[in-house]
Design a protein that fits this description.
Chain lengths: 221, 221
DNA sequence: AATAATATTTAGATAAGTCTAAAAAATAAT
DNA sequence: ATTATTTTTTAGACTTATCTAAATATTATT
């Protein structure tokens, strides 16, 4: 068993290193977890002694196989609870993160597996992030941001990169919720903002580069 | 907000004082929480400084109004989660306590109120204990143990006093689950064991005094 | 290559919660 | 009313997780 703090660090390390094989840096971890670098160093020593990370002084850190597996289990719990909160308790997608941040630490494999079953083994959480199965396995999503889509293409919104409350509220307000079919009608070279058509709503909307880079889509075929 | 340890102490104090207005004693609290008397003293000082208990050195302790209210909220969460686990996730009644012991500390009024609604505002948990509402109010159950029932009387099992796994398994095995209609057919004066008829199962069973004193019943009318 | 800037680690302190062992108070037994 | 026993509290130590401030290592700049 790991403590709540250990689990939060493992999860943070997973998110910080999943796209950066060279490892995570002390200051980045501190910024991500809103704590101090010295606290991070202490925890890295502890996780290292438990063989959950590979850590050498001043050299950055990566998760060990064991640490990655453990991180994925916490992430699995987080995302399943988020799905539960939206699907069974009618929370909005911008309300669930904080509560899931607590629920992800409940220690019971049986519990989370039964929640999984109750929900019908969902593959993606309310923000479009994949839910690992009991073995930590999940399908990699073909990583495409709305920013990278050319003019004329029709795509479906399938997730967000930024899951902050402020971004989710914005996205919801302009109608880019998950599952929405949209078409890129124009790309303005001045600031690379996009004119998007939303056929289901019969509306069009202008989205900034900052927005389009945080919306994940898959190509409609 | 209170810490997890504080919440567990408040809950323990509630259970230890609900039937004992003179207050709880340090050693009893320590035994109940499987900790040491010195740890209890430390926590009582802390709870006292937070105005959650009335505590004077060597004089025992009782919950303040504020402390009682807080304890009832934790108990509410505990019992609602137990009901959820049994009703929605098909856990057995002897499996839910440990998990609820963790879930009761999730901080979100909105969450527990929505769970309450999802479950249809249940009045009793899987062990027959009353579930306080959002204001801490609940109906006192007419407190009758099977031990006190005279020969010939027909009653319905409505709860247990001891909620330990070992007792619940025994009770389940002999068929005295909640809702079961039973009739006291004989009382043997030697050890005050009872011969109980269970019409729905067409069986009869002999229960010891230790058992009958831990089974709550209500008189059928 | 030496110096400046940045990043990371260490040293020492604090808070919560727990423990053991010793002291003090309350209660029971002579 | 002493003495003995039990209960409770205090003193001091330990663990986890955090912090500030100082020291050290790494990297960038002249
Ligand atoms: Mn968390
Ligand atoms: Mn999510
Ligand atoms: Mn608990
Ligand atoms: Mn219960």
């Amino acid at each position: 068993m790991n403590t709540l703090a250990e689990e939060n660090y493992l999860k943070a390390l997973y998110h910080l290193t999943v796209q950066a094989p060279e490892g995570a840096y002390t200051n980045d971890i501190a910024a991500y977890l809103q704590t101090k670098a010295s606290s991070v160093t202490d925890m890295l020593k502890k996780l290292s002694s438990k063989k959950l990370v590979h850590y050498k002084k001043y050299q950055g850190v990566i998760l060990s196989k064991k640490g990655k597996q453990k991180a994925l289990q916490v992430i699995r719990k987080h995302r399943l609870w988020e799905y539960f909160l939206v699907e069974k308790l009618n929370f909005r997608w911008d309300e669930v993160h904080e509560i899931a941040e607590q629920l992800e630490h409940i220690q019971s494999d049986e519990l989370i597996n039964r929640i999984d079953k109750l929900l019908g083994f969902p593959k993606y959480d309310p923000h479009g992030d994949p839910i690992p199965d009991a073995d930590g396995y999940f399908e990699e999503i073909p990583f495409l941001t709305l920013f990278a889509i050319p003019i004329g293409e029709t795509v479906t919104v399938c997730g967000v990169i930024d899951s902050s409350v402020s971004f989710l509220k914005l996205i919801e307000n302009i109608g880019l919720t998950i599952g929405t079919l949209i078409k890129v009608e124009e790309i303005f070279e001045f600031d690379h903002s996009l004119k998007i058509a939303i056929p289901s709503k019969k509306t069009k909307v202008l989205v900034s580069q900052q927005i389009s880079k945080n919306v994940l889509v898959k190509i409609k075929k």
